Amino acid sequence: MGKTQLAITYARRHKEKYTAIFWLNANDEDSLKLSFRDVAQQVLRYYPSTSMLSSVDQDKDLDQVVSVVKDWLDSPRNTKWLMIYDNFDNPKTSSNPAKWAVDIRQFLPRSDHGSIIITTRSAQVRQEIVRYQGRSLDRV
Question: What pTM was computed for the model?
Fold first, then answer.
């Protein structure tokens, strides 16, 4: 079973634990930003009165969309979400500073609630995120 299929299987088996499950394409920064726009639209479909999301121009300012979605995830009322960052295979690290590499830290919620799955082929990702977040990560 591949990494993406494993994440799909987990999400399906444990969907009752979460109030929302969001799938993000972490292949590159543009894909991540578009994925955050999809998350914003999904949230607005279910919670149309979410003013922080409805006030952002989702077609013109994707950086703002990312920021506002992260703020929404950080809200103390939103504790049972799952973010799946799929295909994070080009991490920007000290040993890989390439322009096309992704610095996922700017796309991670800041809160200590909710759950995150990151699928990757890169062995460097775990140590970089632990260094950034200061949290333990389980490897599958």
Answer: 0.85
